[in-house]
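Hey, I'm writing a tutorial for new members on how sequence and structure tokens pair up, and I'd like a real worked example in the thread rather than a made-up one. If someone can provide the structure for the chain below, I'll link this post from the tutorial.
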Amino acid sequence: MSNISSTIVGNVNINYEISAKEVGESTIAGSNIKLYLTKLNGSEEEPLMTPETYHEESEENTYTGRPAGEMSLYKGSMNSSENNNYRLRMYVDENYNPQGDGGGLTFSVRINVYGLAGEKYVPETTKTLLAANPVQEEKTNMFNYASNGNYTNLNYDELNDPNYITNGLYSTEDEDGTSYYFRGNVENNNVQFGEYESDYYVYNNGYSNYYQTLESCEESGWDNCSPVKLASTGDKMYWKIVRVNGDGSLRLIYNGTSASPSNSELTSSYAVGRVPYNLNSDGPKYSGYTYDNGVDSFIKREVDTWYQNTLGKSNYDRMVTSGRFCSDSSGYQDGSAFGVSNVFASMIRLGQSMTNFASPNAPTLKCPATSESYGGSYRLKAGLITADELALAGESSCYVVGNSYLNPGDNDLAWYWSMTPAFSFFDDASVWNEKDFLNRYNVNNPYGARPVINVTTDNGFASGDGSVENPYILNAD
């Protein structure tokens, strides 16, 4: 465990970076070593990265002062004095075969911390987006409406108020600072990032379910699983920009192998699979992205498998950060006011149409703390969107049809999962999902798996204007 403290006097911002540098005469290659950094908050540990193979950056970071030739572990900014404890773990990669190595191998690193005073680092990608999209002001209670102005009353009649049509870029706070999020029927947040380096197959159950592996298809109870090509070698990956995170990284949601997928079938859609969130539903814990203090949900395993077999094996992996993800299982309480047994805090924030807006909808980008053994806050390479992000993007609940950029159309197979628990009814767990409006379904139903990643680059967009015809292009650093 290491302690890092800073004393800041006056109005100054410090951009800092924690890095690792191989030292001495190591007898095992760094390509066989993984590093994992966490921040200690009392008795809790906050992951700051996923375990990553040791590698040295080819370029220096002029914002923090980190030289080239070191592995970046974490970057941040501070404008007040801090005293933080960190824990670094190093271990041998699980794929390393030690047979015949003679034993007694060593690998040593020195941990360095660099910092420079200056303006908070703003990536070129953020500058480009802000220049092309003036930041709009939120309207009072605008989250009671879909971005096309649609709303509902307690009779569930769909109404419309053109004064509440909201399109463009807006801002709010997340856990790392100011986040800029896209809302409504925007058409200039398209990105091409990554490609399939080999033919990619998923497994169909003979109906409309598609799994990442034969084993996961069979685990779901099917014995007629057959491979279906999801993408061909060289197919580009397209994404929608959900928001600029407070740390400057871009939050992207998968949009298929085309900037304008038809969504008529899986191979021409925004999704990489169509699976249950969990195979069991008889308890609220199965609404968590993990449960029983760390058991992966079924859909987490599917998303992780897709990532590991695609971007995780490419040069693009280094641009994908271990970003924040939230499966908000906080606030589990009586839900009789909503007509169900129990609800999570997300229903209180986002399901107010069911109580005729006793209080306004209030989506958040800050992950509430939970005392449950399921759900919570994560650092992941890939995950799912949250129901709060869907609401910020312009979607609404209770059968109010919206038209935001995240709406995949009215195809019956177009529903896709979020990672936000919703409620339980007779102990059946449900999670928020989305098609042309926000809804809640039991976790053992099959819906689309639409990966979300967080990407950072110092080089900006290589080209493009974000349109469907000319998407922004992010090349591998």
